[in-house]
């Protein structure tokens, strides 16, 4: 029986929420009731409702959309997502019922604050999204949600749906689609989203089906449903896969391709790069981290002493012209930069050339090509040894005779190979500028070989010991290194991936002091008890948090503890932590809450961050996201405390 404040009541099938770690899909019939306040569902049937099984307050709803995926056992499915990542999949009895529920719920929730702009049109199953194959459950959706679609799109959507209806229902009026805000304000609908990108690096295809990229040329993206490899069309109409991190979307400001523009560079990295180059007027333009949407010019000035200055590019509200100093305004940013390259115009120094490092090397692609992670040994040429570690020797190598890689040959019996091979496929999908890219694994023959990005300056610990003095003349490169590791770890934390063995020896250094986290998660596959057991002689006790020492409880918070120790390694230029203590004393000291002392060259502001990572209670330690913000907030004045 419908009561008067019930908007709609239907008997539909619900898929379980899959809240547990392991959850097998399960389907139940429920009576769904929509009111102005909530969506509730009950046991029983339409004539006799049973026990209330669940309810979702409408203001908590973030997505209401149809599911477009043949994977579910029934058609006519729609989804309601709410809270952090709970997805309710509901199967209506026919298209009309599905349409009505979606429209009514979208209408009821259209003013919700937390509506997501994008959603997943597939389902979360077996650890990935079926629509875009992303492996992070929290990854942003791959399709525009109703709150973002133009009225034309929405109307098209429902007329297609109308055409699918049985004839006798065709002209029945469906509830009107929700009206997006911009239409109410009489603004023109946005143009259809054909994404045009510009190649920022050259890319030579390594597999059939890939498309060559020429730096500076434009490409139209025809499919961006996968995160790392997009389908693109070049000017000649040839289509193929490209690595998505080799292109950037063309912006209205038209800066992509300018030698001085680097989109995602942090203030720390910019300062470190300019200081490393050490040239008067060396500059770059970056997106401001502090005020998103604003561009910052960062420039090095050598007199009276070396300083790095940051200037926001402002826009005059009257004529939309850009300026650094109000007296000199320009219609475009390249014109503004060109002017200040020839005239100081109020800046500490005239802008000269950008740092050479900006024109440097292309980043690693995610795997060698779309879906390729299995590598044949015939594609590899092995060269000089780079080092050796827990699993065996690491050599410099060439993939297909042209691309430098590092090849780790696993000593037989050193790792649990089958489990690792299973995991490696997921690990190749992890991609971040501060993670050493795992390209793939060669596992058809033994010994197994792991192929990763090559980092020309070896591990961070040795690098600090040999190059540290040069770096430490100024403290910003040290802060920049910590910041880079923190960014890589923040990505792992976001992807719910625990490193378990973070330390300077497990980070690698590339050209221009780029630091990347390596060997993430590998310790799970080591077969040596001396390494895996906290009482073993090879266990990294000095990097272990109290809960790891006591209960082997690893988490992102135990990674945070290890990150604090790594910061200490950086600021002591590669010293071994607790230099005069044996392992028993270290355990005693750590479990009694006594910490490492502040290294001599470590600013107090940095030591305050380190100390937070060594809170005994893991829940009181900050997240990598929080640490990243704190490190970004450290200003040049803090170095001089
Ligand atoms: P394991 O994990 O088996 O202990 P590592 O990964 O630590 O081995 O490798 C041993 C050494 O080889 C490192 O300390 C580093 O100097 C060198 N190395 C490892 N991987 C690379 C790489 N991708 N690029 C350059 N050098 C590397």
From TrEMBL:
Xref: InterPro entries: Kinase-like_dom_sf, Non-receptor_tyrosine_kinases, PH-like_dom_sf, PH_domain, Prot_kinase_dom, Protein_kinase_ATP_BS, Ser-Thr/Tyr_kinase_cat_dom, SH2
Segments for region (Disordered): 146-190
GO molecular function: ATP binding; non-membrane spanning protein tyrosine kinase activity; zinc ion binding
One GO term describing the cellular component: plasma membrane
SUPFAM superfamilies (alphabetical): PH domain-like, Protein kinase-like (PK-like), SH2 domain, SH3-domain
GO annotation, biological process: intracellular signal transduction
The protein's name in its UniProt record: Tyrosine-protein kinase
Organism: Branchiostoma floridae
Gene that this polypeptide is encoded by: LOC118419818
């Amino acid at each position: 029986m419908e009561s008067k404040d019930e908007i709609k009541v239907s008997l539909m099938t619900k898929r379980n929420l899959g809240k547990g770690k392991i959850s097998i899909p399960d389907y139940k019939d429920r009576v769904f009731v929509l009111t102005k306040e909530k969506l509730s569902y009950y046991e029983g049937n339409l004539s006799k409702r049973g026990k209330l099984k669940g309810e979702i307050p409408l203001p908590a709803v973030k997505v209401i959309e149809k599911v477009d995926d043949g994977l579910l056992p029934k058609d006519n499915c729609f989804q309601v997502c709410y809270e952090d990542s709970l997805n309710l999949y509901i199967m209506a009895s026919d298209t009309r019922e599905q349409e009505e529920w979606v429209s009514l719920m979208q209408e009821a929730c259209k003013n919700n604050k937390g509506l997501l702009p994008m959603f997943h049109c597939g389902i979360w199953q077996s650890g990935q999204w079926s629509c875009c194959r992303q492996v992070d459950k929290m990854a942003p959706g791959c399709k525009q949600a109703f709150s973002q679609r133009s009225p034309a799109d929405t109307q098209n959507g429902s007329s297609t749906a109308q055409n699918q209806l049985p004839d006798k229902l065709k002209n029945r009026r469906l509830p009107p689609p929700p009206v997006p805000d911009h239409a109410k304000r009489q603004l023109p609908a946005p143009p259809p989203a054909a994404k045009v990108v510009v190649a920022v690096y050259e890319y030579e295809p390594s597999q059939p089906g890939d498309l060559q990229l020429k730096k500076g040329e434009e490409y139209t993206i025809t499919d961006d449903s996968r995160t790392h490899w997009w389908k693109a069309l070049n000017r000649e109409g040839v289509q193929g896969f490209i690595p998505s991190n080799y292109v950037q979307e063309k912006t209205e400001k038209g800066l992509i391709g300018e030698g001085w523009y680097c989109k995602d560079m942090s203030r720390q990295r910019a300062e470190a790069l300019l200081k490393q180059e050490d040239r008067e007027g060396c500059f770059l333009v970056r997106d401001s981290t502090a005020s998103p949407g604003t561009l910052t010019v960062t420039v090095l000035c050598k007199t009276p002493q070396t300083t790095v200055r940051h200037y926001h590019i402002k826009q005059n509200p009257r004529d939309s012209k850009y300026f650094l100093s109000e007296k000199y305004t320009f219609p475009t940013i390249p014109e503004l930069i060109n002017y200040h390259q020839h005239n100081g115009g109020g800046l500490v120094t005239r802008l000269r050339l950008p740092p050479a490092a900006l024109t440097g090397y292309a980043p690693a692609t995610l795997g060698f090509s779309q879906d390729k992670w299995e590598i044949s040994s015939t594609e590899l040429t092995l060269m000089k040894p780079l080092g050796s570690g827990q699993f065996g020797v690491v050599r410099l190598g060439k993939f297909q005779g042209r691309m430098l890689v590092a090849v780790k040959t696993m000593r037989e019996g050193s790792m649990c190979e089958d489990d690792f091979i299973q995991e490696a496929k997921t690990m190749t999908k992890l991609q971040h500028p501060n993670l050493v890219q795992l390209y793939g694994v060669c596992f058809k023959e033994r010994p197994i070989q792991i192929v990763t990005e090559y980092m020309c300056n070896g591990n961070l610990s040795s690098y600090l010991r040999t190059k540290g003095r040069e770096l430490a003349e100024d403290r910003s490169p040290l802060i920049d290194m910590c910041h880079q590791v923190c960014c890589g770890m923040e990505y792992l934390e976001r992807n719910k991936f625990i490193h378990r063995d973070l330390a300077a020896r497990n980070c690698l250094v590339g050209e221009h002091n780029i630091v990347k986290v390596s060997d993430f998660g590998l310790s799970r596959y080591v077969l040596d008890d001396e390494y895996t057991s906290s009482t073993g002689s090879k266990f990294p006790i000095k990097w272990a948090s109290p809960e790891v020492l006591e209960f082997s409880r690893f988490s992102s918070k135990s990674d945070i503890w290890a990150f604090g120790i790594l910061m200490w390694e950086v600021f002591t230029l590669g010293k071994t932590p607790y230099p005069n203590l044996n392992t028993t004393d270290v355990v005693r000291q750590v479990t009694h809450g006594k910490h490492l002392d502040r290294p001599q060259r470590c600013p107090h502001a940095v030591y305050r961050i380190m100390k937070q990572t060594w809170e005994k209670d893991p829940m009181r330690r900050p997240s990598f996201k929080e640490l990243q913000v704190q490190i970004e907030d450290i200003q040049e004045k803090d170095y001089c405390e």
